[in-house]
Automatic annotation (TrEMBL):
InterPro entries: Ribosomal_bL9/RNase_H1_N, RNase_H1_N, RNase_H1_N_sf
Membrane-traversing stretches: 292-311
A Pfam entry, by short name: Cauli_VI
Organism: Lolium multiflorum
Domain Ribonuclease H1 N-terminal, residue spans: 232-271
Name of the molecule in the record: Ribonuclease H1 N-terminal domain-containing protein
Keywords from the named record: Membrane, Transmembrane, Transmembrane helix
Length: 312
C-alpha cells in the first residue's frame, strides 16, 4: 500500500481516492487472517494519525497524538467504508456488519485516548505514529500474558517527552535495517529494482504532498540534497568517456565485466575528473613501461653473462 495516497490532499480527488480504496482493499485481503491492520494517515499533510482498522468487526480507531487540533476525516472515512465493502464482497460475510445506504460501514472512533505530544505542531507526528504502532503491538502481546505480568513495562502514554525521544534512535536503527535488508537487497520483501528516482521526481512528489519538512542528517536539519548527476564519466566500459545522458552511459557499462563509472552534477567537473583519470592512467602506463624495459634489460644482461661464462 503506497503511503503517498494516504493523504487528505490526495484522496480529496475522486480518481486518486479510487486508487487508494483499491490499495486498502487489497491490503485487507492480503492480511485477512489478522485481526487488525495499521494505516498511517496524514489528515493535513504534516500531521499524522495512526488508524487501527478491524475489518471483521467493522471498527476503526484513530490514534492522533495531536488530537487537540480538530481534523476533518470525511474523505478517509468514505475511503475506508468503500474498501470494507469491497473486502467483504471478496472475503465473505463479516463477524460484525454495519450498513448504511446500501453499503457496509465502519464505526469510526476519532477521539480515542492515546499518546499525546506536548505541542500542537512540533513536526514529529510521524514519529509519534510509529510509537503508537509499538504501543499497540506491545499491548496486543501483553494481552497474551497472565494478568500479573501485563504491567511489567512502563506505559508510554504516561512517559514524558524526554523518555519518548530515547526510543527514536532505536526506531531509526530499525528503519535503516529494513532498508538495507528488505529494500536494497534483491531478495528483500520490499526490493525496489527500478533504480533510484531522480531528485526532481522526489521533490515533485513532496510538493504534491505539501511536505515541507527538512531532511535529517547526522549534522542536523538540512534542505533537500543536491540534484542528481547530469553528466556521467565511464572510466571502464565499452567506450570510456564523458556522457550527458544516463542511457548512453548505461549502454557502455551494462554487462561489461569490471565496469567503472560515476555521475557528477556538472559537465565541467566530470571533464576535469576524467582528465585527471587519464593523466593518472598515462603515468601508470609510463611507470609500467619503464618497469618492463628494466626487466627486459636485466634478462638480456643475465643471458649475456651466462653466455660469456659458458664460452670462456
Amino acid at each position: 500500500m503506497d503511503p503517498f495516497y494516504m493523504r487528505e490532499s490526495i484522496i480529496c480527488n475522486p480518481g486518486d481516492r479510487a486508487i487508494a480504496t483499491r490499495q486498502v482493499e487489497d491490503f485487507m485481503l492480503a492480511n485477512i487472517k489478522k485481526g487488525a491492520i495499521l494505516i498511517p494517515y496524514f489528515p493535513e499533510d504534516k500531521f499524522c494519525t495512526l488508524i487501527v482498522v478491524h475489518p471483521q468487526h467493522s471498527h476503526a480507531v484513530y490514534l492522533d497524538s495531536g488530537r487537540d487540533k480538530k481534523k476533518d476525516y470525511t474523505h478517509i472515512r468514505a475511503l475506508l467504508n468503500d474498501a470494507l465493502t469491497g473486502f467483504a464482497n471478496k472475503a465473505g460475510p463479516l463477524k460484525v456488519e454495519r450498513k448504511s445506504r446500501g453499503g457496509l460501514v465502519l464505526t469510526h472512533t476519532t477521539n480515542f485516548p492515546c499518546l499525546r505530544q506536548s505541542k500542537e505542531d512540533n513536526g514529529m507526528d510521524a514519529w509519534y505514529a510509529i510509537l503508537q504502532m509499538q504501543e499497540y503491538i506491545k499491548y496486543a502481546d501483553d494481552m497474551l500474558l497472565p494478568e500479573s505480568l501485563r504491567n511489567r513495562f512502563a506505559n508510554m502514554a504516561d512517559a514524558p517527552d524526554r523518555e519518548i525521544r530515547k526510543n527514536w534512535g532505536r526506531i531509526q536503527q530499525f528503519i535503516c535495517t529494513i532498508i538495507l535488508q528488505d529494500v536494497n537487497n534483491r531478495s528483500g520483501e520490499f526490493f525496489y529494482g527500478y533504480g533510484l528516482p531522480p531528485n526532481d521526481e522526489i521533490e515533485l512528489r513532496l510538493e504534491m504532498s505539501r511536505d515541507e519538512r527538512p531532511f535529517n542528517s547526522l549534522e542536523g536539519c538540512r534542505p533537500f540534497p543536491l540534484g542528481m548527476p547530469t553528466t556521467y564519466v565511464v572510466y571502464k566500459g565499452r567506450v570510456p568517456g564523458v556522457y550527458d545522458d544516463w542511457e548512453d552511459c548505461r549502454r557502455q557499462v551494462h554487462r561489461f565485466s569490471g565496469n567503472s563509472y560515476k555521475g557528477y552534477p556538472t559537465r565541467v567537473e566530470a571533464e576535469g575528473r576524467y582528465a585527471r583519470y587519464l593523466a593518472g592512467e598515462m603515468r601508470d602506463m609510463r611507470r609500467n613501461r619503464m618497469k618492463t624495459m628494466a626487466f627486459v634489460m636485466m634478462v638480456i644482461v643475465t643471458m649475456l653473462v651466462m653466455f660469456y661464462v659458458i664460452v670462456v
